[in-house]
Design goal:
The complex is a heterodimer. Chain A is mainly alpha-helical. Chain A is 54% helix and 3% strand. In chain A, β1 and β2 form a beta hairpin. The longest helix of chain A is centred in the first third of the chain and has 32 residues. Chain A is globular and about 80 Å long. In chain B, strands 1, 5, 6, 7, 8, 9, 10, 11 and 12 form a nine-stranded mixed sheet that branches. A three-stranded antiparallel sheet of chain B has the order 2-4-3. Chain B is globular. Classes of the chains: A mainly alpha, B alpha/beta.
Amino acid sequence: MQQALAKFVPSASEPWDRARAAHLLNRAGFGGRPEEIDRVVRMGMDAAVDELMAFDRVPETLAPPDFSAVRAAWAATTALTPANSTEQQRFEARVAAQRLDNQKLQELREWWTAHMIRTRRPLQERMVLFWHGLLVSGRPEVRLSETLYIQNALFRRMALGNYKTLVLEICRDPAMLQYLDNESNRKGRPNENFARELLELFTLGLGHYTEQDVKEAARAFTGWTRRGTAFFFDARQHDDGPKTFLGRTGNLDGGDIVDIVFAQPAAARFLPRRLFEAFAYMRPEEEVTEALAEVFRASNFEVAPVVRAVLTSRAFYSPRAMRTQVKSPVQLVVGAVRQLGLEDPPLAPLVRAMDLMGQALFIPPHVGGWPRGESWITTSTLLARYNFSGLLLTGGMPGVARRAALPPALPPAAARACEAARTAGEVVDRLVDRLAVGGLGPDRRGALVGALGATDAAAPFALDGAESERRVRSTLHLLMCTPEYQLA
Amino acid sequence: MVNGMTRREFVRKGLTIVAMGATAPSFLTRTALAMGHPFDLAQVTSRPGVPDDHVLVVVQMGGGNDGLNTLVPFADDAYYRARPRLAIPRGQVIRLNDELGLHPRMTAFKELYDRGAAAIIQGVGYPNPSRSHFKSMEIWQSADPDGRTLRVGWIGRYFDSKCPSCEVPFAGVNVGPTMPLAMRSEGGRAVTLESPDAFQWMPSLEGSGAREELELFKILNAPAPNEPGTIDFLRHTAMNAVISSEQIRDAVRRYRGGVEYPATRFAASLRLIAQMIAGRLPTKVYYAHMTGFDTHAAQQGAHDALLEQLSTGVAAFLRDLEAQGNAERVLVVAFSEFGRRVAENGSGGTDHGTAAPVFVFGPRVRPGLHGRHPSLTDLVDADLRHHVDFRSVYATILERWLGADPAAILGAPFERVPFLA
């Protein structure tokens, strides 16, 4: 492999230590608890990456939401015809079905959030989230929430699968067919929406095709539609005339388009670059992208070898990568709940909090997907991120829930951290360790010691009653309201 | 580099305001001064004849507005040939003259037009148009089709040009989810909020404990020299948020307008902006968002509702400003990243196109139609030719509304469009 993507080899100056193990768990999952980090240090990098990637070996049951009632409600709307009902009846049936579907969508949002919190396959869920942000579909364009579940399951099944296969599947995916209108892409007057985004946002990127290629690809996908929640090829609506796409001429259909797309050099670079940015850092060096593209091409577009190359590279453990990633709202929320050991948090407020931070699951802002990097941060979203810790610690947060008269119990992980400490300084150290906050200078640490009511770090501290509990809560809140905690 | 300063210098200069916040209770001195006398900070006098208290409101119609179904060329048979399903029937068009008229759901717009408070600039676009939402939006927001200065937007460059009152960290206020590139500046002079209630930091404690917690919060968030870029950016944002939140919430709280707004998200954004204007914030530019214009399928209904929302929202906003006595200070401009294809597709929708009209509102506009309507038969790749470069619209606003030097901000002198005197 090229120098740009040299493998990380531990040395005396760059050991496989807690910082690097924590970094791996942050990026390939939702962060590690101190004991998990220690375990990964003992395992070594290769074994740890193997274990994260071989998630199929970890048994996990995941009961899907029950869509039977909403399925019946939608079926009822199609059973009503002008022959057997009034317009008013048909309208009311549609409204009733949509209302039920909206409830299901909320259930689905909470279901996925709960799963990310509890999963023992963190890398798989990180990949599902990655695909949701890349091969974007969502409300309001997708009217059937069940199809969003089907897409989510596809992403889970193909989490580290073959990208070319995944793209072909997404061309036939019932949620995507709704989201980018290909369900109504018909012979004669094609709809360009899906064809354009397939090329621009899913596979090649701007500059690697012409406007004429978009038009021709749209023709190739005519008739690719759905019946209910399943793909359906409508031969009568398919344009089977000759088309010329990226220099190839023939009676091309959607599958041919995908084949031709993946034969382009740009397709080999596109996904590896996005994967590297998701795991390591933004705007990688050109040589890094090229080296990853080689891995991708050599494996015939398998995702796993690329992910493995990233997670074991020197670049991934370099200063440019470590502690420089702005956590996405999902990373922040799921990570905090896991770190604090909150067993069974109420899910609706967590989902709402992520909405306020700009990451509404299944309701992406647009086909370009979520913000990335510093774009996550505005004055508004930063306040929401800071106030979110108040939601966990005091039960309230503006825009989500009013504070309860009595604050909830101290999170179990915080209580445990205090039990093992004798001084204010030790409490701060343990909380910092628990929340994996890096790079806090002495002044800022001093402020946290002050929040415990101590004048210096050596002052004794014991968690013994309401007042000391209030102080620990305040310290934890302040710690989570730092720029440092926003980074992973 | 802006005016010979690097980003770091700019940020540091800005931080002299916020960094004091960590230690001195009077950290708002300069900003507070600006609050009491909103325009005392003027270091650069505006162009003669342009009052310093002008405000610009930008409305972004995200997704690509179908200009042909907004300003309808109802006398042109080519329009009806291209759109057998989607064309607005001749009899339903709200006529502006013998050739052009508004979509039937734009009655509120027509009232503004008749009162002389609305102007339409026809056929606005740029050379070699991109049909990508993201590229084209980037071009409109950066005002730079060649992509040289993508880190900062055209409004951000105006802030960086030391406009009067642009020293405050909320010279720009974006009401919406993400900060538009248009408002990004080297000096970080814009904030984003969605609702004033959520726009505040909440301590975990109450009473005096909360005050102490806030002081510690400031220590934890105060910028320091030589920190990595992202941490620096986060601290800067956090301090801007805390400074702005108090003043913006205060300004909003003071105004209880009696004007009724439609029950839409867009109208709620405009209502919030009206409250901030009433509160005499020294903000120069507000930014509001509409989405959903990407009508590839089942356009009818969806697009109709959007045009009504635009019209009734802006109409309510202007009524509110009149009631406040602030209407003369405010100019609203509404744009979209592109128009749509002349011919409809088979989904009852339209695909991405090129030139489209830009709308300008306010009692000080020169009302009516500006420029000429693009031909529906002389097309490039089945799309309309533009006649007005969007940077001409910006140049006109920068010079005649904001009193700035357009050539310095846009990189070249663009022709003015006479929608402002």
